[in-house]
Amino acid sequence: MRRSLFFIAPVIVAGVLALGLGANRPSAQPAAPLAAAAPAEAPAPGATPASRPLHAQDIPYYEACAREGLNASECAGRLIWFKATAGNDRFHTYVFQQRVGVLIDWFRVLRADQHGDRFKAWGAINDPACCVPGSDNCPAKSLDETYGFEWCPGDEELLKYVGKTGYQDPACDFQDAPLKDGDPHGPKDQRQTACDLKFGTSTGALGIRKFPNPRFNREQWVALNGSAGTWDGYSRKIAAAGGSGEPAKSRLLDGSVEPPFLIGTSCGSCHISFDPLNPPDDPANPKWENIKGLLGNQYTRISEIMVSGMATNTLEWQMFAHARPGASDTSAIPTDQVNNPGTINPLINIAQRPVFANEAVLKWRKTTSCPEPKDEASCWCEPGREGKCWKKSLEKETVHHILKGGEDSIGALEAIQRVYFNIGSCSEQCWVNHLSDLRQVDPQQRGFGQTPFNIGQCRRDCPNFRAIEDRLPNILDFFLSAEAHATDLQAARETMKQRANPAAIYGFKELVADLEKEFGKNSVVRGEKVFTENCARCHSSEPEAAQLETGTAVNLDYRKVNETSRIRNDWLGNEKPTPVSEVGTFRCRALHSNHMAGHVWQEYGSETLRAQPRDPNIKEPADGGRGYYRNISLLNLWAFAPFMHNNALGPEICGNPEHPENDFYAQRPRYVDGSNVKLLPPEQQPGCVAYDPSVEGRFKLYKMSMEELLNPAKRIPKVTLLNQDVSLRVGPRLWDGTDKEKLLGFQLTIPSEIDGRGVTAGTLGNFQHKAFVVDLVQSKFKPEELQARLAKQYGAEEGAKIAGDLKAITGEIASQPNGLVEALKKRPYLVKQVYSSCTAEVENEGHRFGEDLPESDKKALIAFLATL
Amino acid sequence: MQKRAIALLAAAFLAPMLFGCTNKEDKNPPAVRFAPFGEGYATKPDFAQLEHQFPLSVEELYKITPKNLALLNQEEVDQIYARLSAGPIPDGPYEGDLFFPKGGSGKLRLSEIAGGGLRGLLVNVAGTKLDLIGETLWKGKVFYRQDRLLRNRIEDLSALKAAGLVEESAETPLQKITVKGKDQWLLFPARLYCGQSLLDGRRESIIIDYAFTDQLPGYRKMPDMMGGRDGFAIRDEIRMVRPGLYLGRAYIDRSFVVNFVLYNDEVAEAAKAEFQKTGAVQEDCWGGTQARAVLTATK
User: Fold this and answer.
1) A754 and A802 in one domain?
2) Which of A175, A384, A446, B282 could form a disulfide with B88 if both were Cys (CB 3.0 to 4.6 A apart)?
3) B164: nearest CA in chain A?
C-alpha cells in the first residue's frame, strides 16, 4: 500500500500549488507509470523549472514541504539536504576503501532481506518509498533485479544503467528556487548545473543514495557471488594464510571488483530523524509524516556503517566503531589523531541561535569583478560566467559558533558547505591530498601532517562544490524554516492523544499538571527559579542572563515569543566558549585540532577562534583556540537524551538487532570498574535501554539521564575499551623460509589489557606515533637537542627520563625488530601521557553543576526543563 | 640465523622484482619546471595549485627519460607524477627500472632518516642493495590489457631457486616469454584496474594489485604469494609520462617504498608524432575534474 502514494499524481499538483513553485509547471498525469516520470534528456543550463519533469521520487518531498509550510527556497534546501551527495559516491565506493584503507560492506547495511533489522542494527531510517523485491505491489519481483537492495522510486530508470554509461541523474531536473533578490551574482541565473548535486535514487535507507556503476560487469559479479542478488562473495571473509591471528580479509579489499552501485550519502544520512511530535508506530517502517530533516538521528551508527567491511580485530574497526548511537567522529577520516566522537547536533529554532559580532574572519566573499593585476589567490572569477567572482579578505563579521567547540566560525553558509566535506564530497579534487597519512613517519615527506584545505581551489576544481555553494542560501532557509521549530513535550503528547481522539486537547496546563503529579507540587515554577539561579548563566541566550555571572538577579522569560521569528526568544544556550576544565566533561572533543592554523579545516575557523587563550588546567596540547566547549542549547531536552557531546551521560541505548554480528552494544559494553578501567562483569553491567523513539520512550530516557546528570556520584564510569587484541602490520614482513604458510616480520599485536588495566580505544587513537618516531630518531642522532626540548616541555627531571627511555627503546628494537610493543608496554606512560593527544578516559564525567541541590530542586529542574 | 638470512634475502629479491631499476648513466635531471618547496612536509606545494601554475608541456614530457628521473629528489618525482594522467592501460611487454626516494641531501631518504641505526623500526634492507638486485633480476612487466592482468618478467631465477622460493614441477611448468631474443620467466601475476593514487587523489592511476594474486591464472604459490595480501601486500600505481613511458610508485602494505619506470620503445616511437602534435591520448581511467592544460608546440 505504501507504494500507491507514488502513483497518485494529484498530490503533486497540490504540493506544487501550496508551495507556489510555479503555476506553469506541467501537472503530473494521474497514475502515470513511474518510468514515464524519468527525464528524457538533460535540461539546458538555466532552464526554468517549468521545462523540467517532476520525478516520482520527489513527490513525498513536496508533500512534506506543504505539510511543514515551507516556501520555495526552504523546500529546495530541504530536497538538497535529503538527497544531494555532491559527488561523494566515489568517496564511499573508492576513496575511503583504497586511499584511506577502510572498507564498507554496503550490502551488509542495505540488503533488502534485512529491512526489518536495519534500524535496530544500524540506526538507519528506512525510506518509506522503497519496497523489498517480491513484496506486494513492489515493482521488482526478485533480488536479482535490484542486486539485493530494495527497490526505490527512480530505479526503473537507474537499473537500466547498471554496467552502462549514459545515466542522467535525477538532480538534473531539480526544481531550483528563484535566485535571491540582491544576489551579487544575479539577476541572471548562473548557478552551477543541478546535475552536480547528484541525487541518484534511494537505497532504502534515508540519506544513503545509489548510482549505477558503469564499470560493473554482471557476468563477473555472478561468478563471484553466485547470483546477481547477493554480495556474499564480495564480502565473504577470507582467513589469513597461516592462521596467524591476523584479521580476515575479503574481496571488498579488491579494487578490481566493481559493485553494481556506487553509494553516496547526503547530509540527511545523519541528520534525518524521527519526528518527536509524531513518532512512527513501527520504527522499521516509518511513514513520511514521521520524518524530519534537521533534528539529527539519535540512533545512527554511522561509524559502524563506515567500518562494516573490516574485521573486528583490525585497528580501523576498533578506532571507528566506538561512537555511541547518534554520535560520530567527524575528525576520524580527516584524522587529527584525537579520538573524539560527538553527537549530531539537533538543529532547533535556528533563527534564535546566538551570533557573535566583530569576529575576525578571513574568507571568500561574493563580488562582481576582480581588480588588475589578477591574483587568483585573493580574487577569482568563474570562467564562462558574467561577474561571478569571489574576493578573499579579512573582515569583521557577525558569525555563529558551530561544532562542539564553536570551530566552524566563518559563517553559517560556509559551515553548511563544510558538512559536504564531512560526508566525502570533493574528496579527490580538494581534500584527501591534505590529510595526514598515518603510515608516513618522515617529516620531510607529503602526508606526514595535514595541510590546509583551500576553498578557492575547491571552488575552481570541483563542480560539486559550486553546485552546493550556489544553493547554500536555500539550505540555510531550510534550517530557518518551520521544520526546525521546537518540538515540545506538550505538543507531542497532544498529538499522541489526538491519534486516539482527534478532538483531544493537551495544553500547557495539562502538561504542568502531569509534571507536578510526578515531580511535586509547584515543581515547574520552582524549577524555573532553580534554573535561573544555577543554569541560565550558560543556558540562556537572553542578554540579561550575562548579569548572572556577577550574581545580579534577573528576571528571564523563557517562554516569550520573538515577534519576528515567531518562535521562543530564548535559545536556552548562549553559545559562548567555556574552558573544558571548567565544564569537566570528557575533554577529547575539545582538543579537536582540525581548525588550527596549518591544519585541514583552517579556512573554516575564524582568527578570533584561534586567538582564544589555552586552558591552563589541562596538560595535553591545547593551543590554537582549542580546549573549549560552547554552552549548548537545552531546547527540547526531553526528546534528546542521553546527554553531553558524546551521548555518554545517561543510560546506554541499543537496538538489540536480530543478527548478533550487528549487535554492537553487546560487543562493546561500556561500564567499567573505575579502579582498573576494566569492564564490570556482565552481572554488574547495567542493561542498555532499547531504542524507543515514542513520546513516552523519549521522556523516560530524559528522566533517567537527568538523574545521572544531577547526581554525578551515582554515575558508573563508562570507558570505551578495546574489546579484543588488535593486530596490525607495520612495514614489510619477512619470509620465514621453512614454514611455507608462515610469514614473520612487523606484525604487532596490541593487547586489550596491559598490567591488569584495560586499554582504551582512545589510547590507540590518541597515540601520536609520528612525534614518537621522530623523537626516537632524534634520540639516536641528536640526543642533546631532544633532551633540551623535552626538558623545556616537561621539566628537567621528566625530560631526562623520557629521553633516556627513548634511547633505550632504540637499542631494544634494533636487536629485536618486533619488540616495539614490548618496549612500550614496559613504559606505558609514553603512550598514555607523553605522546597522547588526550589522556581522558572516563566518558561520562564532569558537568557536576547542580549536584549539591536539594533533591526536591533537582526534581523541579527536571520538571521545568521538560516544558521547554 | 639461517632463517633470518633467507628472510632478508627473500625481501631483497622480491621488492625490486615487483617494482622496477635505476640507471646511473644520465648525469642531468630532466629540465622541467617545479614549484618551489622546502624541507618540511608543510612546505610542499599543493598538487592542484602546482598543476594550475606549472602544467607540464609535451615538450617537457619528452625531456623525461627512464634514465634521468632517478636524478631527481623525491619531491620532484612526486611533482612530476602528480601532473600526469593515467593514460591508456598498457598492453604487452615493458622494460623496467627502479629508483629509490632521495632526500634533499641527495642521499637515499631512508639512509637520511634511519642512518642504518634504526633498522628494526624502518625498512631493514638498504636501498642501494635492492637497486643492484633489481637490475640483476627484474626486467620489467607484461601487460595483458584485455584481461586486465599483469605478470613480471624475471631473467634469472637461480638466486630465488637457491633460496627455495620457486615451486616447479612437470604439472606446473613455469611460464616463459622471449623478449629481444632472451628468455624470461613470468611470475607474480597481478590485477590491473583504475583506482586511487595513494599520493594524489585528483585523478585515478592505473593500479597493479597483487592482493589477490592467488586467484589469478598462472599463480604458483611460491614465489607468487609473497606479493599478495598474505605476503608483502604489494600495490603499484602508474601514470603515463608519454606514450610508451610510465612512472610508477610501489607500496608495501600501503607504505611507499620505491619509484619505478616502465617503457616500451616501440610503443613510444609509434605514438610520438601524434602525441607531440595533440598532447592527447586515450584515457582509460577517471581523469578528475580539474581543468588540465594541454601544452603542445602547436597550441
Assistant:
1) yes
2) B282
3) A737
* Sites in chain B below the pLDDT cut of 50: 1-13, 15-17, 19-24, 105-107, 109-133
- Same domain? For A59 and A120 the reply is no
Are A737 and B6 contacting, i.e. CB atoms less than 8 angstroms apart?
Answer: yes
Backbone phi and psi for residue A183, each to the nearest 5 degrees, phi listed first: -65, 125
Q: Which of B265, B242, B248 is nearest to B180 (CA)?
A: B265
Q: Which residue has the cell 511535586?
A: A520
Residue A536 lies in a domain: no
Residue A746 has pLDDT above 80, yes or no: no
Does residue A56 sit in the same domain as residue A162? Answer: no
Kindly state whether residues A195 and A308 are assigned to the same domain.
yes
Which of A68, A67, A866, A69 is CA-nearest to residue A490?
A866
**Domains contained in chain A, number:** 3
CA distance A93 to A262: 6
* A505-556 confidence digits (pLDDT tens): 999 999 999 999 999 999 999 999 999 999 999 999 999 999 998 889 999 9
For residues A291 and A274, is the Cβ–Cβ distance under 8 A? yes
B76-124 pLDDT per residue, tens? 999 999 999 999 999 999 999 988 877 654 445 444 443 333 333 333 3
Whether residues A17 and A161 share a domain: the answer is no
Which chain A residues are Cβ-neighbours of B116 within 8 angstroms? none
Kindly determine whether residue A242 and residue B201, on different chains, have CB atoms separated by under 8 Å: no
CA-based nearest distance B111→chain A, Å: 12
Q: Looking at the domain assignment, is residue A25 inside a domain?
A: yes
Q: How far apart are CA A752 and CA B105, in angstroms?
A: 43
Residues of A in contact with B113 (CB under 8 A): 442, 444, 777
Given A326, A352, A372, the domain boundary residue is A326
Domain span at residue A70?
2-39+51-75
Query: Does A860 reside within a domain?
Result: no
Closest by Cα among A386, A385, A387, A412 to A398: A412
Is residue A264 a contact partner of residue A211, using CB atoms and an 8 Å limit? Answer: yes
Q: Are residues A127 and A68 in the same domain?
A: no
Model pLDDT for residues A280-300, shown as the tens digit of each residue: 999 999 999 999 999 999 999
Numbers of helices and strands, H then E, in chain A: 32, 20
Residue numbers in B near A254 (CB within 8 A): 191, 209, 211-212
User: Per-residue pLDDT tens for A260-285?
Assistant: 999 999 999 999 999 999 999 999 99
Residue A618 belongs to what H/E stretch? none
* CA distance to partner chain A, nearest, from residue B8 (Å): 7
For residue B125, give the amino acid letter: V
Whether the predicted model's global pTM rises above the 0.90 cut? yes
Nearest to A451 among B46, B233, B254 (CB): B46
Choose among A94, A729, A738: nearest Cβ to B253.
A729
For the stretch A545-597, pLDDT in tens is 999 988 899 999 999 999 999 999 999 999 999 999 999 999 999 999 999 99
Say yes or no: A137 and A207 in one domain.
Answer: yes
A6/A99 same-domain check: no
Confidence (pLDDT) at A673? 93
Torsion of CA A440, A444, A450, A453, to 10 degrees: -130
Is B198–A249 a contact, with Cβ atoms under 8 angstroms apart?
Answer: no
Nearest CA distance, B207 vs chain A (angstrom): 9
Helices of type H across B19-102? 47-53, 58-61, 74-82
Whether A310 is covered by a domain: the verdict is yes
Relative to beta strand A653-654, strand A689-690 is parallel
> How many CB atoms are located within 10 Å of the residue A514 CB?
16
Q: Round to whole Å and give the CA distance between A373 and A396.
A: 26
DSSP labels, A470-521: TTHHHHHHHHTSGGGS---HHHHHHHHHHHH-TT----HHHHHHHHHHHH-T
